Amino acid sequence: MKNIYKKSSIISENAFCPGCLHGVASKLIAEVLEELQIHQKAICVLPVGCGTLNMESLKLDRVVAAHGRAPAVATGLKRSLPDNIVFTYQGDGDLASIGLAEIIHAANRGENITVIFVNNSIYGMTGGQLAPTTLVQQQSTTSKFGRNTSTMGYPIKMAEIITQLESPTLVARQSLDSPRNIIAAKKIIRRAFENQMNHKGFSFVELLSNCPTNWKMKPIDSLDWMRSNVIPYFELGILKDVEGGK
Predict the structure, then answer these.
(1) pLDDT one-digit tens code per residue, 139-182
(2) Alpha carbon 211 to chain centroid distance?
């Protein structure tokens, strides 16, 4: 019998909540690193948030950063160890809120790192609070009646903001809600790591995810909600793709 799929050797059991797509994101990263044969020199920087559960999942060298500071830590690692593959794995509360300055300045400097940004439109690990990416009228523990734009502003589109900077060479957004989108997500993750291998500079990959626990939905319902609400607002595709090199 032909073997059509083999689990990556650098990922262990899923440590995330049932139905959460963080597990899919982690699996794709592990597969790409192993396929490119760069996993032995890869360093994953994990800040505070659900992504920190990859301490249990990814069998890589890992560094835990303070909340929001992963791009700063990744900058230091990459400049100190330029032959290593350095990437951050960040959520929307971490990257787009407390870490907004860090991600903007790392991108603006064109650091030769890869940023994987998992956007589930809510603070996951800390209790389901309103995040910078929470949708208009979406409920959370701190927006009981839904996000009100007059007092809470609009959801931040991080990929579009990063795209406006001169230095980033690859900025893309994909979703993890369907097999078709998962395949597309893996391709862009691969491109992002290849950019780093080829010294092309800063790559930013946003992955739309769900949060059944804090959205208070069944996993299958959360996927439908993503397709009806999240993806129409955070449009998928490659926003920037230019030749870099340092």
Answers:
(1) 999 999 999 999 999 999 999 999 999 999 999 999 999 999 99
(2) 14
Phi, psi for 240 (deg, rounded to 5): -150, 135
Joined together, the tokens standing for residue 78 give 């990459």
Q: How far is residue 224's CA from residue 177's CA, in Å, rounded to a whole number?
A: 8
Question: pTM for this structure?
Answer: 0.95
Q: Which two tokens stand for residue 203?
A: 């790559």
Q: How does residue 196 score in pLDDT terms, banded at 50, 70 and 90?
A: very high
User: Quick one: fold of 22-241?
Assistant: Rossmann fold (3.40.50)
For 48, counting Cβ atoms within 10 Å of its Cβ (0-12 exposed, 13-18 middle, 19+ buried), the class is buried
Q: 3-state class of 133 per DSSP?
A: coil
What is the Cα–Cα distance from 151 to 12, expressed in whole angstroms? 43
Tokens 């971490």: give the residue: 94
* Amino acid at the residue 201: G
Assess whether pLDDT exceeds 90 at residue 227. Answer: yes
